[in-house]
UniProtKB/TrEMBL annotation:
GO terms for molecular function: ubiquitin-like modifier activating enzyme activity. Transmembrane segments: none annotated. Residues 430-729 form the YcaO domain. The lineage of its organism: Bacteria, Bacillati, Chloroflexota, Ktedonobacteria, Thermogemmatisporales. InterPro entries: Bacteriocin_synth_cyclodeHase (IPR022291), ThiF_NAD_FAD-bd (IPR000594), Ubiquitin-activating_enz (IPR035985), YcaO-like_dom (IPR003776). This is YcaO domain-containing protein. NCBIfam families: cyclo_dehyd_2. It comes from Thermogemmatispora aurantia.
Amino acid sequence: MRPRMRGDVFYFPTPEGVYLRNNQGAFHLKGKGLARLLDLLSPYLDGRYTLEEITQQAPEEQRALISKLIEMLTARGFIRDLTPDHPHQLSVREQETYAAEIAFIEAFQDSSAWRFERYRQSRVLLIGSGLTLQALVQAALHSGLADISVLITSECSLDRQRLQEYLALRRTRDPLQKLHMLEPLNWDDEQAVARALAPFEAVLHLSDRPMLRRSALLNRFCYQQGKLFLGATILDTQAWLGPLVSPAPGRQEASRGCWECAWLRLLANLPSEMATTLYDFADHPEAPLSYALAGPTAAVVANTLNFELFKYITEAGPLETSGHLVFIDLETLQSQRHPFNASAHCHCCRQAGPLTASHFRDLVRERSTGPVLSLEEFSRKAAHLFDPRLGLFSALDEHNYTQIPLNIARVDLARPAPYLSRAETWRVFGAGSDFGAARRAATLRACEGYAAWCYDPRRSLSGSAPEIVGRAPESFTCYTRSLEPSTSLDPEEDYLWAWELPDEQVALVPAAAIFPLSAEEGRLQLPPIGVAAGMSWSEALCRALFTHGRAALEQRLAQSREPFPQVEIGALALSEAAQRYRHLLALQEVAITVYDLSALLSDWGLLAFAFCCHEETWTYTCHVQAQAAIEEGLQLCLQHAQALRNSESDYALSPVTPLPSALRGETLIAPLYPSVEVWEQMLPALLAALQSQGRRALVVPLDHDAALSEALPYIVRIVLGKRRADDGC
C-alpha cells in the first residue's frame, strides 16, 4: 500500500480527537493526540512511501495505531492507495504546476496523474474567431494541454499577438506548451476539411457569431471519424454549449444524439422569427455581435467548454453537456442544462431507412403482443419528452385556468417537422377529475398530435425502389392516394408499409395518405382522423376506428329523416365518474339532453350519442360500450360548460355539425346496452363490421420519432382501404 492524502482534505483538532472533511463528506475521529499524529504523518502521505516504510520509522508501540489510522482513513475516502494506479511520465515540475488539476481528478478517479497526462498529451484542435476563441486558447493553455492547434476563421477579428502573449506567460510555468497556428480552410472543400481534422482526437468550435453550417459540418465529420466534437454558439445574449459528441464505442454519448439533433430540437421550439433564419443551418458571418459578449462573458463560455473536454478525457466529474445543451445567459451568467432526444430529422447520426416487409411484419406482431402500459409507467416515460427549450413538448401546466369542477391542463408542442409553421403555437388540452388525470389526458393528446406530423421521408419507399419492384403479386397489396387498390405502383409516389386488417397482411400506402406533407395540410386538423394512441395496441386501434366512426356519423346526419330517441341517462347504470359529471352539470344548471344515434352506425358496430344543450349541439361520441361513450360525452360537456362560464375559450370544444331540431325525438329510452370491458374483445367486432362494408383497416404505426415511440409505442394512424378485386397488386 502506498497511501496518499487526497488533495481536497483538511482537518483540525477537536477536544475529543480530530475532524476531517473533503468534497465527499466529513468524519470525526475520536482519540486524543490523533491530530498531532496526523501532523507528523502528513509529509509521508504523498504516495512515495509504502505503509511498511512509514510504520518502520515510528516507535514500536505506535506502529499498529498508525496502520489502523491509515486504513480507516483510506476506507473513509480521505487517503488513497496509489499501488494500483497506472504509471505516468509526468515530471515533478509538471505535477507541482498542475497539482490543482490532478487533485480535482483524484476526487473522482484513481490514477489521477496518469489521467491528467493523457489529457495533457491529447491532440486538440480549436476552431473559431473573436473574443470567445481567444478565451478558449487561454483556457486550454491554463488547463495544461501541451500541444494546441488553432484554426482561426474569418468572421470575427482576433488579436493573434495576444495569443502569443498568453503562450509566453504560460511558458514561464510550463515551458513544454506549444501553439500551432493552422492555415485557413476553404469550408466548401469538404475533402480538405476532412483531411485537416484527421490528425486530431478532439475538435472544439467557438465563435462570436453563429456559424451553424460550419458547426454542422464539423459535427458530421467528427461523428464519422470517431472524434470528439464540442462547440458553443452565440445567439444574441444566449450562449448554447454542447452537446458533447463522441461516437466512440462503449461511451454513452454515442447513442444520445449529436449536435444536429440538439439544434433541430432547439429550433423546433424557437419563435418563428428566430427559427426561420436558423433552420437552414447557414453561417451568419455578418450577424451583429452580442452587446453582452465581452472579455469576462467570453471567458465563462470558453472555460466551461474546455472544462467539459477536461472532464471527458480524464473521466473526472459529471459531464454537463452529455446528452444536454447548456444555456448561459450572457447578461446574468446564469446557466441551465437542457436534455434532448435524438431527432428523427437528423442526417448525421440518425441514418434512417425503410424497413423490409418482413421486418415490418415482425414489428407489428411485436407491438400487437406488447405489454399494456400502466398510467404510472406512461407518466414516467412521457416526462422525458418535456423540456422548455429542447423537448418534443415545451410545457405542461394549468396556465391559470379555472380548476373547478374539472382540472384543465395544457401542453405546448414543438414543431414535429421543419416545414411546419411556427406562426401559431401548437397546443392541446386535457381535462380530468384531478391534476394527474388532466395532465395525462393532455400529454396523450400531445403524443397523438406530434406523431401525426412527424414524418421522416427516409422511412418511405419509392414506387421504383428495387425492394418492391418485381415482387410477386401475392407479396403485398398496394393502394393509391384515394385508397383504391391498385394493380401497379406509381414510380413518382413514396410509399409506407401498412398492416392490413382483418387479413393481417402487409400492404403499401402512399405516404401522402398518412402524413400531411405541407404546412397548409398541417393546419387542417389536430390530430387527423384515424390517429389515436392508447396504453395497448388494441386500445390504439379501437380509438382510431372510433374517430372514423364519428366522422361517418356527422356525414350521415344530412341523410337522416327519422328523429332519434332521447336517452334517459338517469335510468342507466352509469359509471361513478359519469354520475359525478351529470351531478356537476346539474349544479351549474346546464341541461344536457342525450340522443341515441346508434342507428346511423349500426354497420360500424358502434353505439353513438349526441349531447345537446338547448338548441346547441356540443359534441358526439361513439364507442362499443355505451357507458364509456356517455361518460366521455358528459365529461366533454362539463369541460365546455366550464370554459363558457369562465370565459376561457382556449379549451372550449370545437364546433360540430349540429343535430337538426327535426331529428331530436321526444321518445325516452333506457335500453340495456351490452357491456364489453376489454379492448381486445372490441377490436374483432369492429374489424368484422368494417369488412362487411367492403373496407379494410390499413394500420401505420406512427413511430418516426424514436423518443416518442419509446415513451408510447402504441400510436397509429388507420386509413380505410376500399374493396379489392384480388389479393395482389
